[in-house]
Structures
1.
Amino acid sequence: MTDRGSTAEELASRQREIAVSEFFLKNRHLLGFDSPNKALLTAVKEAVDNALDAAEEAGYLPEVRVEVLPVHGDVLLVAVEDNGPGIVEAQIAKIFGKLLYGSKFHKLSQSRGQQGIGISAAGMYAQLTTGRPMRIISRTSPKTKAWRFVLSIDTTRNRPDLHRKERVEWDRPHGTRVEMEIEAHYQRGMHSVEMYLKQTAIANPHVTLHLSDPSGRTITFERTVRRRPALPVEIKPHPHGVELGRLIAMLRATDAKHLSRFLVREFSQVGSKTAARIIETADGNLTGRSYPRRIAHAQAKRLHQAIQKTRIAAPRTDCVVPIGEDLIVEGLRKEITADLYVATTRPPAVYRGNPFQVEVGIAYGKPGGVGLEVADGGRIRRIEAKHASEELVASADEPARVLRFANRVPLLYQQSGCAITKAIQHVNWRAYGLAQPKGGLPVAPMAVLVHVASVWVPFTSESKEAVASYPEILREIRLALQDCGRRLRAHVRKNRSLKKEFERRVEIERYLPHVGEALQRILDLDDRDRDRMIATLDDSLHHSRSTR
Amino acid sequence: MTDRGSTAEELASRQREIAVSEFFLKNRHLLGFDSPNKALLTAVKEAVDNALDAAEEAGYLPEVRVEVLPVHGDVLLVAVEDNGPGIVEAQIAKIFGKLLYGSKFHKLSQSRGQQGIGISAAGMYAQLTTGRPMRIISRTSPKTKAWRFVLSIDTTRNRPDLHRKERVEWDRPHGTRVEMEIEAHYQRGMHSVEMYLKQTAIANPHVTLHLSDPSGRTITFERTVRRRPALPVEIKPHPHGVELGRLIAMLRATDAKHLSRFLVREFSQVGSKTAARIIETADGNLTGRSYPRRIAHAQAKRLHQAIQKTRIAAPRTDCVVPIGEDLIVEGLRKEITADLYVATTRPPAVYRGNPFQVEVGIAYGKPGGVGLEVADGGRIRRIEAKHASEELVASADEPARVLRFANRVPLLYQQSGCAITKAIQHVNWRAYGLAQPKGGLPVAPMAVLVHVASVWVPFTSESKEAVASYPEILREIRLALQDCGRRLRAHVRKNRSLKKEFERRVEIERYLPHVGEALQRILDLDDRDRDRMIATLDDSLHHSRSTR
């Protein structure tokens, strides 16, 4: 050891526990709070996710109000109010004032929230940037008054710091309202709160959403169906997705006294017959009456292998609730003007034991078509299109717009890192008549909607902006895209031939001057004759091809 | 509420705290454990990061042994051993058996590890996939025996579950050895353990690394310099990077009795004069003797604004230690055969109050050059190149290889989501004579090394595979790339003209048949004359351009 170096004892004195709130405060970009633009959207999204989940779980048709109001300078007030069942007094502080606290993490069931991080992280960001606590009003029944909480998060301990708590009058029969002041920018365009709500409306046609923006404008996205989607059923893990270590932990933790009871109770799709077959395959002195907690490592390993070898029914499908092909087409049609709409809902599949289901919808073409027309003399002309940045269908020479959804929640950031984008890029769209640069998105007047629903969506970060690239998920998305692509082909074909011809001619025109120079030398022409020759060639090429 | 819906009380009964270890176990892809290929590399990386940090902090020249040995089936034994100072008995269990525990999180100082998650997460993955506990041997001095710990992680409580603890003989004077059995694949190529160690050697020329792989092969990357890099100095936050909410929290937490003392003690680059100026600017009844804990919200806000308005010296630069231009060139030269090497180290800069520093090194060209040559008659021919997949310089028609480093650690995954890649894509490489598809990496026989060093590297996920795109970081990388690009230009120019000409001719040849058809109609040629005309045109075009 040299001078300035530390001994093991000195190093030890610096070791400390890190509160999860400190961790995420320092790494707030992991939660989607890396810039004032994104922070607003993330805060709204976390609150709306919770609002929709709560209303649906309680059996209400969700109606959510989002208010974004100017306070001063860069500070905005964000308020989100729902008509859900409300939150009981004892839970309010922890739900909003503690990270990693919630009801959705420990169960396998499709919901928008799953981590127990989002809303308290939004409050933490508010606190960090404006120093202001969150304000929550919640009422569980018209028979009782509402509770009003003012609280912040003690970030060094990850626990709520309650400023005030009181009974108040509130003119809603039940529901929750959360308010926070955050440093943020209200922006327009693809990453705006409005776009987020618009896409939410597409994937949730049973929901009504209201938005009041800082300019005082109010927009309502009205529900188009009054039928609630089925409530997803909560499931146990599927035995084929359980790793050895997890099996060992489950054996240690179970209350079941017998191995066969353990298998039936702790897993989905295992009845007593399947359990018996697993145990028989495992052998190693295991019987249906073996005591789970006493099973040794070597035996657990045999059991794990036996599970892999045994045929077990695929996970039940009612744990995942898709939007459905009809409603996807209806949603697209309502918000996007296009020539053709197609949608596919795949059957449920499984990754790492988690059931999931993929849906794809495509809106193709729009007034103005591919933006090309055949003029007199066979020349193809480009039609001027109005700017499409606010629209959800791209114009003909732009990459297709991608609308990504996970458990009905629109994903607006990290498009390039998302399994959905990768799957779209891996499909050969040329086979369906679309242009596609190598490894890129198809270039077409098109919006591609992809919905991944799962009891546990594997996101690439806690900000839940992109789906991780598990091979099984990539595969299902690809199959759904290909199905839609095939149905698109006939429609695309006529636009394609026009476009291809146009591109060929543009390239020919680019090379004519070079040909002219060469001809001039070979045939010994003067400049005027050369130019005439080029003009004749040009006309001739256009004419010959357009009359074919 | 309708049937099947839950009341607020029912929902409340499901609310639970989530242990951070449970969270990451379920989200293990966030930590880099999403596939058996990646899991091996991540486990090795976390252990090597810790090994290098420990040895350097204690003032030793690091020497690290990595062993990857087959156990059975898909199970590998991973062992990493260092010559660091060892770990004192009381800390071993927590460091390896608890997530979010460590010495590096709470200080602002450049180190490889920073989160206190990595090594315990690797152990958790081992436990999950093989059910086997970690084994640790550590010795702090030749005067004492070593400690041997066998432990796993109680994931529902995030705390170590100690299986055994004993004094043992160990033939090293000091250091730490960690062993775990994990389900993993040993692969070759760009994402291999070998490539990771090779790149580690490039960025850490003072380190010696040994690798034993499952086939029994042993490779050593020997250090090329015996001089240790300077130890980075720990700093306080810079006042310009502190948000209002954090300032308020700091005011509440400080031991300082006076505001001026608080400013001087808790921040870097604030002396008593600067403190006085800040307080004067803030006004609002604040004086140097105000009691920090009693400062109200409105006053804190004035203080925060005053800090932003006051000129304060840039952060001191010795908190970040770059590799240095000479050592980057030396490292590249040692591992990569190329024609030209350039490197740039930027001065330190700041994002969100955190000092950071960017370095870029480029190795350009390799035996075989751009893979083109001028043959007789002016025709340009493609030279067959041997396959370059194992090499770090791309071949002429492939995108440049990107070698990304953060605090001297190679980043092997999530290239497309990394600020480093984005910065390379945003530079206009055409200005330096390189081909570049729109929005893509330059296409050239080239390796681009980028090193981001910081007291706190903002990673895009806990797996620390990509740097988040803070604008200040993107800007510094771009400036460094541009500097290297300018020095590359002269060298590239001669290769470029050859390449450009080649591409032009390929395109001309593609269109000659169309021209031939048109000429045939205009001049009324028969097929033989048409073909002769095309051949003459072809020769003429090649000749005329090659003699220009």
Note: Chain A touches chain B through 101 residues (CB under 8 Å).
2.
Amino acid sequence: MTMIVFSGTVDRLFPVGVLASGGVAQGMDVDIFLTFWGLEAFTKKKLASIPKIGKDYEAIGGMVMQAMQMKHVPSWYETLKKAKEIGNVKVHACAMTYDLMSMKKEDLADIVDDVIGVGEFMDMAKDAKVNLFI
Amino acid sequence: MTMIVFSGTVDRLFPVGVLASGGVAQGMDVDIFLTFWGLEAFTKKKLASIPKIGKDYEAIGGMVMQAMQMKHVPSWYETLKKAKEIGNVKVHACAMTYDLMSMKKEDLADIVDDVIGVGEFMDMAKDAKVNLFI
Amino acid sequence: MTMIVFSGTVDRLFPVGVLASGGVAQGMDVDIFLTFWGLEAFTKKKLASIPKIGKDYEAIGGMVMQAMQMKHVPSWYETLKKAKEIGNVKVHACAMTYDLMSMKKEDLADIVDDVIGVGEFMDMAKDAKVNLFI
């Protein structure tokens, strides 16, 4: 399966971790392509900052985040990291966004495997059973 | 076909009903997985409240909603209900979100069939011809 | 491959152009279905107006758009137009949205090929290797 992670709000990153876990549980290889705000969310700087909820859901968002803390739900990053430890999960940074945002390798979270172009990613998506744009 | 319904704004719920109808018209089985704000949108409480448009489209959103009323376009919920009456449409609640939001069966709209885990859903998606994240 | 373009903010339209280019580079046919704010974004009127960034990313959005201008990154529309010149890219307007917004053929950008129903689109998606909802 593949996921194009375009979004950078914490509510949309959560499904990335959970769906990767679900994919791994079903024995699938998981390829994640980080682009735009999705790539920014995987920078060390952003990971160290306070996570933001999508503005459409601000009203209820705080309550849900509080419930997560109370129920000791692991963060999306921890969930994704665990999926990567258990199964074949690869995290790719979009070369175009990487250049556009003038990033360096050391800016990116440890979970990121490499920087690839959109053509290379589409080649993976072509052969995948499930493709999602998040 | 499968749809992961993550979003809870009325403009994004509309395509859920319409695409389910389109899928049914093409003879496809439709499995819908409600998660996060998508599951919240399918609670009786939320369905009884005033629908909200995505903040990115507030400027034009009101006009479009007004056009819908004038042209007697059925609501997204009615559209989905009709698709379910005509074809094989199943609506699943995400177990994790269900637990996180401390929901009970009676909180959910009648259209919801069951509560399942992400692994079970990914097993359906694996065999589907079309998978969408909305 | 197919893409359902629901969104109308410039940050989400950018991937439409780039992914179409990637698909064409991999020898795929690309069918794009414009619906809701996605169809509105493809009107001549909207294309002539100042592009808007998703509200979730306004803080960093301005910086990224500036970087795009400085690095002479072509617009999403130019990128999509180029993909259409190189490969088999078809741009379809959603009939329901078209009627709902009381559009006329001359309102739409030149890149739009035709107006089709959701059933016809789902028939294309059924046979595609990659389907995305943007």
Note: The longest strand of chain B covers residues 89-94.
3.
Amino acid sequence: MNELLIVGSVALDSIETPEGVVENALGGAATYGATAASLYGPVNLVGVVGEDFPAEHVEFLSGRNIDLAGLQTIIGGKTFRWKGDYLEDLNAAVTHETQLGVFEHFEPNLPDRYRDADYVFLANINPSLQLAVLEQVRAPKFVLCDTMNLWINIAREDVLKVFEKVDIAVLNDGEAKMLMEEHSIIRAGRKMLKTGPKYIIIKKGEHGALLFSGDGADNEIFSCPTFPIETVVDPTGAGDSFAGGFMGHIARTGDLSLENLRRAVVYGTVTASNTVQDFSLGALKKVTPELIEERYQVVKGMVKF
Amino acid sequence: MNELLIVGSVALDSIETPEGVVENALGGAATYGATAASLYGPVNLVGVVGEDFPAEHVEFLSGRNIDLAGLQTIIGGKTFRWKGDYLEDLNAAVTHETQLGVFEHFEPNLPDRYRDADYVFLANINPSLQLAVLEQVRAPKFVLCDTMNLWINIAREDVLKVFEKVDIAVLNDGEAKMLMEEHSIIRAGRKMLKTGPKYIIIKKGEHGALLFSGDGADNEIFSCPTFPIETVVDPTGAGDSFAGGFMGHIARTGDLSLENLRRAVVYGTVTASNTVQDFSLGALKKVTPELIEERYQVVKGMVKF
């Protein structure tokens, strides 16, 4: 059994989109990533919450193939909270408030049995914490990292240190252009392949995702469309679900061939296509492996010529 | 021999992009469409120019399998001129000046031998002129129309009258959303299928194109990526080249199956990928059928999983 190790934020989100509002809903990169990945196999989660973290969320996660031995609860601490909206643009959140809470002094400390992880998903947190996790993992076979514009702005060197140690980096198009200081997605992707990771994925929201391999030549780019969604209710966690689905498929198959990485991109895409159809984990928690497989086949048909 | 009938603008463009400037360069929707389509087979062009239209442009077009019996030259008239830039956004031109010239009183009058056309490409012109052309064509097998935001704004009813009479309509994402008053591309595409055309193509610039068929169900959408281009020199005419390549492939094969329409979308895409690599017709005029086929195979590889 290949357990997937996921480290990242566990949060309570307050979000407004054109489709509605939620307050203090379960969120966080590791939460979305782990819930998505648990559709594919067992997950070991590393993160931190405060004493205020509702018991029902713990029950939900542990009821889904997600081991929480690595989830620290800080007595007297407050869970990380994020408040934002997508009223102007569904592809770009406007942050109203960020309360780091227990995340401010978080030191990831992996339970010993997590340290033999073969597959590691470093979800979006401070790159110095991503590095601290990697130091504790003995001999991983395949490591994926995500990041965000905040870290590219204030900790670019650390982001690039993480890149040197991972097999694959996943960014959205804006982040990729920002990190590589390029206007072209294609150029940014090719340039990123020279910073360390063997593979780069650039997520383009409703326009799908690109997987760059080799030295990024024309025939070394895989283009995956999104599954067609008419109404995006809440885009929060789509990128985390994408990476969670991607790594979930990699861990369950143990197959690191480029062909299987392409299939993993499609699994990531269809997993994320569910996430955006409701607020918080609302849609993702209802998804079955059968629905994932159905949407996978639709995407296969969408690109056939 | 299936001659493709193309009607639209022939123009002289003055354009500035981040890559440079051109003045009074050969342009126009019918020019790009015909030059692109001529890579696939013979074209009959219907349009109008003024006495100022350089002889070298006439020589260029007629030297490429493009019949100009339908190109009127108005003595004493001035050729349509457009001036604009793409300095802010390569996906959206800012118009500085439009001189309609001979286009103001253009009445398309088809040479009799053009009226038996099986395949018709109504490139971007006033929809009332597109309708006037269709009235002269006896029994077309397959008609494609393009349009633009200007006509959607000032002649929406006429645009929809054209839609009732064509087999396929091609719009970019912004135009599709505007015409259907929808925020979602998927919803706009599905809604447009109810306005007349059996097929709808929504072009998404660097993100590729979607072909909607049937009633636009999930499995009735074809998604085609773009061929990867690092540096877009001048996006002018990309959409016209796309439609020209699409219809060129349809006319040369005479195959109206959905499978062949999908292949035509890919041919349109790779044809347009050349257009943007230089100003005016600079890159497109150098393209060979071998290069088209090479890029077609690259796109095939890009979506394989």
Note: The radius of gyration of chain B is 18 Å.
